[in-house]
Design goal:
This protein is mainly β and 226 residues long. It has one domain (4-225). The chain contains 1 helix and 17 strands. It has one helix at 4-7; strands spanning 10-15, 23-30, 35-40, 45-52, 57-62, 79-85, 90-97, 108-115, 120-127, 131-138, 143-149, 155-162, 167-173, 178-185, 192-198, 204-211, 219-225. The strands form 2 sheets. Strands 1-3-5-7-9-11-13-15-17 form a 9-stranded parallel β-sheet, with no helix packed on it. The radius of gyration is 18 Å and the shape is flat.
């Protein structure tokens, strides 16, 4: 039986190390109304989340920011792998490596698989190395925001959504190349997709595959500036 206390539960996990290149967190949880925040503040972080339930809020910070800051030559190399099953979940993954002292840094990777309806997925990848973001969703009326920004490597996004009424926004910025592969399948409720690519020194590219079975049509907006 779920109690009022359990529904209000907040878990905060913080790992800090100046020398470790492999902070790892693995979480498997089942239930509703969970509020979970994970903070990994050093370099080379890995998080794995398997969550089943509704109305959960999950936020994962790798390298930190908004705005518990840190950085000071933290050099990235963050990975996040999530599987979410349920409805009305609010999910956010934030990977950052501004590397303010200069130099390069390691790339960021994330993969997120969602099965359910009315979920909100927000992923942010910032830093000077490359970014890879993969999101796969099955269900209806889900919202996905993927933001990739960096000057030292390629930005790459692969988003696959099956179902009705999705809203997807992909924003890729910074120098060096950006690419996005989008596959949207719809059988009744229109989807809305916006892609923005603003890269200054190299080419951008995209491919969009869409199946829209809505009389009024679906919305696809592409903004490119390079």
């Amino acid at each position: 039986m779920t109690t009022v206390w359990a529904r209000a539960l907040t878990i905060a996990l913080t790992l800090f190390s100046q020398t470790s290149w492999a902070n790892e967190i693995y979480i498997t949880q089942s239930g509703d109304g969970l509020s979970l925040e994970m903070q990994q503040r050093s370099v080379g972080n890995y998080s794995s989340l398997n969550s089943t339930g509704d109305d959960n809020t999950v936020k994962v910070y790798q390298g930190m920011h908004p705005d518990g800051t840190t950085d000071g030559d933290e050099t990235g190399g963050h990975e996040a792998y999530w599987t979410i099953t349920g409805n009305n979940n609010d999910l956010g993954s934030y990977q950052t490596d501004e590397n303010r002292g200069g130099g390069g840094g390691a790339s960021h990777h994330l993969a997120n698989i969602v099965n359910g309806d009315y979920n909100t997925v927000e992923h942010t990848q910032r830093g000077k190395a490359g970014h890879v973001g993969f999101v796969e969703i099955q269900g209806d009326s889900n919202t996905v925001d993927l933001y990739q920004r960096g000057n030292g490597g390629q930005k790459w996004a692969d988003i696959v959504l099956t179902g009705d009424g999705h809203t997807v926004d992909v924003d890729q910025r910074g120098s060096n190349s950006a690419s996005a592969a989008i596959d949207l399948t719809n059988s009744g409720g229109a989807y809305n997709f916006t892609l923005t690519q603003n890269v200054t020194t190299s080419a951008d590219s995209f491919s969009i595959t869409g199946s829209c079975a809505t009389a009024g049509g679906c919305s696809v907006i592409v903004n490119r500036n390079n």
